[in-house]
Structures are given as C-alpha cells and as structure tokens.
C-alpha cells in the first residue's frame, strides 16, 4: 500500500468537530490523542483496504475523497458509497473482522488511523465517545436505507437529483459552496452507485442542463436551482 504514517494530535485538528464527539474534557482528549496517533497518505487510485483484509482500524478521512465498492458475482465493480473529509470508513469490517469491500482513493487522500480495539476500550471508559461511535454506525444504517429507497422507487432523474443534493449538502457542512462542486467520481461510478447505465447518467445531466437547473463543465457542476432539484425529488402532489 502506498502509505505514509505521520504523528498527529486530534486536539489540534481543525476537523475534530466533524469526526469526534463534542464535550470531551482535556484528560479524555489526551487519551484519544494517544489512540489516534497516526495518519496515512493514500495516492489516487490506491486502496486504503481491500475485500478480505483483516479489520484492525476505522479511518477518519482528513482530506480527499474515497469510493467503497464490491465485486459482483459476474465480476463487475459495484460502487456502494462515496466518503469525504470528516467521514469514517471501515465500519464494514466490524461484523466478521474482515473487510467486505474495497476502499479506493478517488484523489490523493489522507486518513487518521483509529485502532478499533483501543477505540472500543476507550469508549467503555467515557460514554461520550461510545455514544458518538453508535451515532456513526446509525448514520451508516440510515444512509444504506436511503440508497435502498433511491434504487427501489425512483426514476433516473430523481436518483441523480437526490445524489447531487446529498453531495452538495455534505460538502456545505464542511465549509464548501452550497451551489458549486467538483465531482471526484466519474459518470460511470455515479451510474454504478445509482443503478443507472452510463448513457442514462450522461443523458440525465444533459436534461438538467437544458432545463437550466445545473451548469456542467466536465467535472465542475454549478447548481443554478437547488429548488429545481428538490422539485424533481419531491414533486408537488396534485390537490
């Protein structure tokens, strides 16, 4: 793995509000600093972990963008999620002590390594951390349910509109623009995640452009009408 370990302190990290619980006292923060003591750099296209790797740690994304994917029975890669700064990767490994998916960097990235046995031990010591770990797990379950709803009941336009709204909302929570974003994933990867063919993804993007809802220049997307996207996902009901 193309990785480099660096010493880091959570207490001085400007992302700690995103991936750590609020309200830890200085003693608790010191203990956490001792546990989450290394960062790892992952080059674009490299794997943070692969299916079948032994599960040892959770990873907090400090910078960069990842996709998680599994290989289907017929050999295709199925994208199962996209993870960005301040989000946690690796929860899939808890159930069987082996990772059940690949985590691939979509751009040069850096993660904080959180050895799970130590995090688990520490979370028993102070409930703030335990509650936070449970919240992270719950968030992943809710996100999985949302994707199932997306794939099970929505048309192509609704799927892509919901995806763009979710992406820009998550980026905005990290201090980025509410209306502009650079897509780190390809159209093909978006299609894999949303259960759409590449041609359908491209056609739907073009439709949104024609309707004046978005502006697209290669991977740059300017959302000109957030309300337009919302109306596609939740059209007004007839009286």
Helix and strand topology:
Elements (H helix, E strand, L loop, with lengths): L4 E3 L8 H4 L6 H10 L2 E5 L4 E3 L7 E7 L1 E7 L5 E8 L3 E2 L12 E4 L3 E7 H10 L1 H27 L2 H17 L7 E3 L4 H8 L3 H13 L3 E4 L2 E4 L2 H8 L6
Antiparallel strand pairs: 1-2, 2-9, 3-8, 4-7, 4-9, 5-6, 5-8, 10-12, 11-12
Helix pairs in contact: 3-4, 5-8, 6-7
Quaternary structure annotation: single chain
Regions with little confidence, pLDDT below 50 for 5+ residues: 1-7
Rg to the nearest angstrom?
Answer: 19 Å
- The helix/strand order is EHHEEEEEEEEHHHEHHEEH
In percent, how helical is the residue content? 40-55%
Total number of helices: 8
What sort of overall outline do the alpha carbons produce when their principal axes are compared? globular
If strands are numbered along the chain, what order do they take across the biggest sheet? 1-2-9-4-7
Major β-sheet annotation: 5 strands, antiparallel
**Taking all residues together, what is the mean pLDDT?**
84
- What is the number of E strands? 12
How far the N terminus sits from the C terminus, by CA atoms, comes to 58 Å
What percent of residues are in strands? Answer: 15-25%
Structural class: alpha+beta
Walk me through the structure:
The protein is α+β, with helices and mostly antiparallel strands and 239 residues long. Helices cover 41% and strands 24% of the residues. The protein has eight helices and twelve strands. The strands form three sheets. The protein has a five-stranded antiparallel beta sheet. A four-stranded antiparallel beta sheet has the order 3-8-5-6. α3 crosses α4, α5 (156-172) packs across α8 and α6 (187-194) crosses α7 (198-210). It starts with a strand and ends in a 6-residue tail after the last helix.
């Amino acid at each position: 793995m193309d990785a480099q370990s660096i010493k880091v302190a959570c207490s001085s990290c400007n992302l700690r509000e995103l991936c750590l619980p609020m309200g830890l006292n200085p003693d608790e923060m010191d203990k956490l600093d001792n546990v989450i003591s290394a960062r790892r750099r992952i080059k674009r296209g490299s794997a943070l972990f692969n299916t079948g790797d032994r599960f040892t740690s959770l990873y907090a994304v400090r910078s960069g963008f990842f996709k998680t994917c599994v290989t289907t029975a017929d050999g295709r890669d199925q994208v199962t999620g996209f993870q960005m700064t301040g989000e946690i990767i690796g929860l899939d490994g808890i159930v069987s002590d082996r990772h059940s998916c690949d985590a691939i960097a979509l751009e040069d990235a850096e993660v904080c390594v959180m050895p799970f046995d130590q995090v688990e031990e520490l979370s028993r010591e102070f409930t703030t951390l335990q509650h936070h770990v449970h919240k992270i797990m719950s968030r992943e379950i809710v996100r999985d349910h949302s994707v199932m709803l997306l794939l099970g009941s929505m048309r192509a336009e609704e799927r892509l509109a919901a995806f763009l709204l979710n992406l820009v909302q998550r980026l905005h929570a990290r201090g980025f623009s509410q209306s502009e974003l650079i897509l780190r994933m390809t159209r093909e990867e978006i299609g894999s995640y949303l259960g759409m063919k590449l041609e359908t993804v491209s056609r739907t993007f073009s439709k949104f452009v024609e309707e004046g809802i978005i502006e697209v220049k290669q991977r740059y997307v300017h959302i000109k009408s957030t309300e337009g996207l919302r109306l596609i996902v939740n059209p007004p009901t007839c009286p």
